[in-house]
Amino acid sequence: MEVAGISSAQLIHFPTTLHRTLACNSCCVASHRNPLPRLRSSSFNFKTVTHRNVLRKCELIRTALASDVVGTDQPEMEEEKEKFDWFAEWYPVMQVCDLDKRVPIAKKVLGLDLVVWWDRNENAWKVFDDSCPHRLAPLSEGRIDQWGRLQCVYHGWCFNGSGDCKFIPQAPPDGPPVHSSKKACVAVYPSTVQNGIVWFWPNSDPKFKDVIMEKKPPFIPELDDPSYVKLEGNRDMAYGYEILIENLMDPAHVPYAHYRIIQAPPSLKNRVKVDREGGRPLDLIVEKLKPDGYVGKLDRLRHKFIAPCVYYFFSDPELESKNDESVSSTANKPPTETSQRRSFLVFFCIPVSPGKSRLIWSFPRNFSKWINHIVPRWIFHIGQNLVLDSDMYFLRVEEHKLEEIGPSNWHKACYVPVKSDALVVGFRRWLNKYAGGQVDWGGKYSGSLPPLPPREQVFERYWSHVVNCRSCNGAYKALRIAEVGLQVISLAAIGAVALTKQGVICAAARAAIVTIAILCFAASKWLSHFIHKTFHFQVYNHALV
How many domains in the chain? Predict the structure, then answer.
């Protein structure tokens, strides 16, 4: 197992005797770019075995610091030949629980415009190119007709689940079958449903029609385990794919520590709270990089990155047993209900376009399952969106700064001297070593970022989350109806009092009606503020939190 090579001596463990030698001969360790200087002091005898060993170790240290990879054995050299192909992987599109079978839905992944729709004839979700072959109108603006076909709303062309055009209204029935031409077909992407998520293969070439038989999307068993409940959500982010993954992999920054407090079981909350309030050293280790990702560990948590989209971590029983072996008092204890509790934090990070990404999250757990049956999903999304908002603006600014220096210069511009950055550095190493240093957009984009938007647009929630979440969208509509209902009651009560003659109702009843009108009006104003803050826009000020 190899430790992620972070360009700082603090992250590499050296023998204690070697530390003392380096302290006395600091010139033995040169800078990252300069070769090891030759010492010509008469007091330093090169003929002794000890000193030759010291020089050999110094040379090894210099090599480790000069390169981003610790260890350069032959298998590692062979792995460097294998490169990551961005268009030969499965990508998540959307969670099934937030899709509507009645309407086609537009999504963008890896720069590709997609339309996701339910084919009731094949009983499956389909992913098409979001472009009608007739006049290139977006099929996502169309409808599902009475025969279960995808219909373009512009001129009414209809397509089945295989992308074949089945009906052209303007074509004469006794004329040539123009609808059967290959030019009338829609590009179809291979798709499947796994872990409750629609996945697609970003190549519509017919030779990839059965690619699912050769390669499947990453599978996490706990997401389909009936003994677990899971909390799901999605959000379109105002920054790119690389920044999104780095942010999720950073266990030390304050909003993420707060997020861990929200999700952590009671036995871990006190320990996690230390991270948020004062911080503590994190002994985070990353194992050997591979083209398909890498694995890390922190205390009892196992971290896994499955390229290019899946990152998750969980409490690993194997790591827990190793930690408990050193404690004799707990070694022979039978497993308790608390020790059998398991929870996962699973993130699907989707590249959308330069400066845009999409996050899908799913948090399965096998305890406190009753909460999910009582508390609606949109209540949880309030806190989760607040956590995402806390990072949104400064990560957008950070992304623009990184664009100025170039993605290949990340390790030069960012100072990462502690082990808590190991996962982030590991991701950058993987990106540079196997994936070309950045997302491959297939030539569709130059890679330059769009201009930095104002804060109001960065923190916007309605179009980035609410319209894409069935729970939040339903709550938004219900609360808007409640707001209007309170206003109607308030106006009706005031009108009734105004139109009623003095002698018809007593003074006490009149005062009660006026009080109800005032309370309903105040409640409607509070509800309006709550709706705007929860579902539209809420600025995040770190200085006031």
Answer: 3
| Mean pLDDT, 10 residues at a time, the chain of 545 residues | 38 35 37 38 41 47 39 40 88 96 96 96 96 94 94 94 92 80 93 96 94 94 93 94 93 52 44 49 85 89 93 81 54 59 93 95 92 93 90 90 86 87 92 91 86 86 95 96 95 87 77 92 96 89 70
Domain that holds residue 116: 91-213
Supply the pTM of this predicted model: 0.79
Cβ neighbors of 202 (< 8 A, separation 6 or more) are 86, 87, 89, 91, 109, 110, 112, 189
Instruction: For residues 504 and 320, give the distance between their C-alpha atoms in angstroms, rounded to a whole number.
Output: 76
Whether 63 maps to a domain, the answer reads no
Last residue of a domain, which of 213, 240, 275? 213
Structural domain contains residue 19? no
Of 189, 199, 92, 88, whose CA–CA distance to 435 is shortest? 88
Sign of torsion over alpha carbons 181, 183, 184, 188: positive
Q: Are 128 and 159 in contact (CB under 8 A)?
A: yes
CB-based contact 490:520 (threshold 8 Å): yes
Q: Are residues 235 and 187 in the same domain?
A: no
Same domain, 258 and 201: no
Instruction: Give per-residue burial for 40-58: e unless 16+ CB within 10 Å, then b.
Output: eeeeeeeeeeeeeebbebb
Q: Which residues pair with 388 in a beta bridge?
A: none
Last residue of a domain, one of 156, 187, 213: 213
